[in-house]
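Q: My labmate handed me this sequence with no annotations at all. I'd like to see what the chain might look like in three dimensions before we decide whether it's worth expressing. Could you predict it?
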Amino acid sequence: MKQTEKKRSPRRLAAEALVRILDEGGLSHIVTEEVLAEAPGLDERDRALFHRLVKTVLERLFFLDHVIDGHSSTPVRKMKPFVRETLRTAVCQILFFDQIPSSAAVNEAVAEVKHSKYRSLAGFVNAVLRSIASDSGTIAEPDRSEPAAYLSVRWSMPLWIAELFLNRFGMEAAEEMFRYFNAEPGTAVRVNASRVPDGGIRAVREALSREGAEIRDGHCQECFRLYGAGRVDRLDEFRSGRITVQDESSWTAVRAACTALLQLRAKPGSTDAEAERNAEADGEKITVCDLCAAPGGKSLAAAELLGERAEVFAFDQNERKCALIRENVERCGYTNIRTAVRDARTEAVPAGSAADPSRGELAAKSCDLLICDLPCSGLGIMGKKKDIRYRLREQDLRDLADLQREILTAAADLPHPGGLLLYSTCTLDPAENEEQAAWISERFGYELLDERTLRPDTDGCDGFYYALFRRPAES
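A: Here is what I predict for the chain of 475 residues:
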């Protein structure tokens, strides 16, 4: 008999979600929400099991396949998608879910296959899972004699990603970063300090603790990670605009750019505090352009750091992304951020023409600070977007580097002489980071003022890169 929506188990839903993610190319955060919306009868306990199953399979995928292939006459890659994902979720429970008896994981998986169009394969599934369950106490880690292959299987990374990290960072650092990516990421948040009274950061932390959040500190008092509080958009501190989602690596980059901007506008020898007071006193407007701004974290950070004297233009390529920016701007209460749809590959409007910021048009040489946080491979955020590793191909890195140069070429004339350009990515790929910085200096003559790579193993945050440039003054 066909199962009704209310009778679909969290194991069945997890297998269906994984088919959509791993076999059909769906984005994990979107697919999980869609699948849960299709099963409204699930209680909180079953929803939690569903999320944990999907998350753990994505973290352990290659190791699960390594185990299954060792106990199956049919390779995982040749199995029917639903059968493959049902086996993965069951083996995941056998090996990593101590509170679920192996017999229950086996029986549930066999029952799900029996109630599918692949019922003839129920015996095969039963045999494979019972063999794995009987050997579960003796399954060893992959052989370390081949470092890249070991890293790939142990931490579920495509071999080419394992080789990239191994060659660049070495075995110890690569494994530590992969461990970080496979751990529970929590939710990185930043306190909007200007939106809370004096001492407000402590009050915000206390309020979040009362809402059930465990707080783990970052390297600056404004940023920390939340665990155990559920969806952040349901927290009062988020809805009120006192916190926003932003990793401290991103905040660090914008803070470096804004600090440099204030210093350049200040009198020689001024401290950061004096520079900020002087900029506030002179009342002169600061124009900031954030080209690929959604969901708005860097625009909010610039508005926070530069205050009301800053006019921040937050652009992105379609209305859906701009709606996300506006939602965050309105929630956080900023009045000096303007949003418009703009394809970042479009040429800057020539100086002297009728530029209309409401349509995403800014005149050349009109910006004090241009923020180019550009589309990238995302190799630094594989912890919070665990399916990136399975969708990404090595060729994508070269294609993305070309796209970044296309955007930079279109935007390079926006900063005025002496203005700043902040280039950043959330990847650890040198072709998208250091090599791009060198290209910006050579191609446009910009002076590199600051450059930094933040790494999970050394900085305890997402992998991130930024380079801050100054456009040379014209003679």
